[in-house]
UniProtKB/TrEMBL annotation:
<feature type="active site">
    <location>
        <position position="200"/>
    </location>
</feature>
<dbReference type="InterPro" id="IPR011051">
    <property type="entry name" value="RmlC_Cupin_sf"/>
</dbReference>
<feature type="domain" description="Phosphomannose isomerase type I catalytic">
    <location>
        <begin position="10"/>
        <end position="117"/>
    </location>
</feature>
<keyword id="KW-0413">Isomerase</keyword>
<protein>
    <recommendedName>
        <fullName>Phosphohexomutase</fullName>
    </recommendedName>
</protein>
<dbReference type="InterPro" id="IPR051804">
    <property type="entry name" value="Carb_Metab_Reg_Kinase/Isom"/>
</dbReference>
<dbReference type="Pfam" id="PF21621">
    <property type="entry name" value="MPI_cupin_dom"/>
</dbReference>
<dbReference type="GO" id="GO:0009298">
    <property type="term" value="P:GDP-mannose biosynthetic process"/>
</dbReference>
<dbReference type="InterPro" id="IPR014710">
    <property type="entry name" value="RmlC-like_jellyroll"/>
</dbReference>
<dbReference type="InterPro" id="IPR016305">
    <property type="entry name" value="Mannose-6-P_Isomerase"/>
</dbReference>
<dbReference type="InterPro" id="IPR014628">
    <property type="entry name" value="Man6P_isomerase_Firm_short"/>
</dbReference>
<dbReference type="GO" id="GO:0005975">
    <property type="term" value="P:carbohydrate metabolic process"/>
</dbReference>
<dbReference type="GO" id="GO:0004476">
    <property type="term" value="F:mannose-6-phosphate isomerase activity"/>
</dbReference>
<dbReference type="InterPro" id="IPR049071">
    <property type="entry name" value="MPI_cupin_dom"/>
</dbReference>
<dbReference type="GO" id="GO:0008270">
    <property type="term" value="F:zinc ion binding"/>
</dbReference>
<keyword id="KW-0479">Metal-binding</keyword>
<feature type="binding site">
    <location>
        <position position="105"/>
    </location>
    <ligand>
        <name>Zn(2+)</name>
    </ligand>
</feature>
Length: 322
């Protein structure tokens, strides 16, 4: 029996975080019940946090299950060839009521050696920013391990890190090794390699509800950090009804589509495509069917669907592997 593939939606995996809030509910309509929900994992195959399908004939199956059953049709021929039956990306929405910890992610080589994992290259799209919201990305000037450790010991680390004001629509691309932190008052769409490896190096000395501080990974981070000054901000065009390039790296390609009307999309079957709706609402039409999506929704288009139409009034992040 031939399977008719269709756009897949998943149950959000909600994560309480010490820095989280309630904006994932008030802004993105996620079904949170906690006042400290920091993350909604939209699309994940991280062990212990595998996304479950909520629509169509595959409802109740996990993303891992259907990839195992239909690797070429879900992932795409080239993605399957390169990654096997692993889904190589992780998609999230984050709500930072407070500053996140200052942290760094290892590259592929280090992550493989230490954790048998991918590294964690990532990008942030700022969906909402309170007045005066900021992020930390890298060093103000070229640094080194000794200078970094001295400032960490003297509680002056923030003085050598680059703090950047942000607004809605800003995009930042963070290669592995970039010291970073999402600041308070931000809602962020995050696209990253499939990895949950984070080295926390400074957490503002805060304590959880039990009075405990969170574990730091200062020694692990030393070898992972890029001490050079980095440029993470990405400029991009916003031409209506077109895929405007933002990031094109080894791990993923992300375009921005300001949709106002109809856009026909044609694919080759080599890669899946994911849409994150960061504003508005839209339909995906294919064959004789149509599905509606709204702000905060994330949808996976299996590689087997090679022609479809986007219709509506929305801002979309379009993600695939090239």
């Amino acid at each position: 029996m031939s399977v008719k593939f269709y756009p897949l939606q998943f149950e959000p995996i909600l994560k309480e975080r010490i820095w989280g809030g309630e904006k994932l509910k008030t802004i993105l309509n996620k079904p949170i019940t906690s006042k400290i929900t920091g993350e909604s994992w939209e699309l994940s195959t991280v062990e212990g946090d595998v996304s479950s399908i909520v629509n169509g004939i595959f409802e109740g199956k996990s993303l891992t299950e259907i990839i195992n059953e239909y690797p070429n049709e879900i992932l795409g021929t080239e993605v399957y060839k390169r990654f096997g039956k692993q889904f190589p990306l992780l998609f999230k929405y984050l709500d930072a009521r407070e500053d996140l910890s200052i942290q760094v992610h290892p590259n592929d080589e280090l992550a493989k050696k230490r954790h048998n994992s991918f590294g964690k290259t990532e990008m942030w799209y700022i969906m909402q920013a309170d007045a005066d919201a900021k992020i930390i990305v890298g060093f103000k000037e070229k640094s080194n391990a000794d200078d970094y450790l001295k400032n960490l010991k003297n509680d002056t680390l923030l003085s050598i890190l680059d703090e950047v004001p942000v607004k809605s629509g800003d995009v930042f691309f963070l290669e592995t090794g970039t010291v970073h932190a999402i600041g308070a008052g931000l809602v962020v769409a995050e696209i990253q390699q499939t990895s949950d490896i984070t080295y926390r190096i400074y957490d503002f000395d805060r304590k959880d509800s039990q009075g405990n501080t969170r574990e730091l990974h200062v020694d692990l981070a030393l070898e992972a950090i890029n001490y050079n000054k980095v440029d993470t901000y990405k400029e991009y065009d916003t031409v209506l009804n077109q895929s405007n390039g933002i990031v094109d790296c080894l791990y993923f390609t992300t375009n921005f589509i300001p949709l106002d009307g109809k856009v026909a999309v044609h694919k080759t079957g080599e890669t899946f495509t994911v849409y994150m709706c960061v504003e508005g609402a839209f339909d995906i039409e294919y064959g004789n069917t149509s599905h509606r999506y709204k702000k905060g929704d994330t949808v996976l288009i299996p590689a087997a669907i090679q022609s479809f139409v986007l219709q509506g009034s929305a801002s979309l992040l379009e993600v695939f592997i090239s």
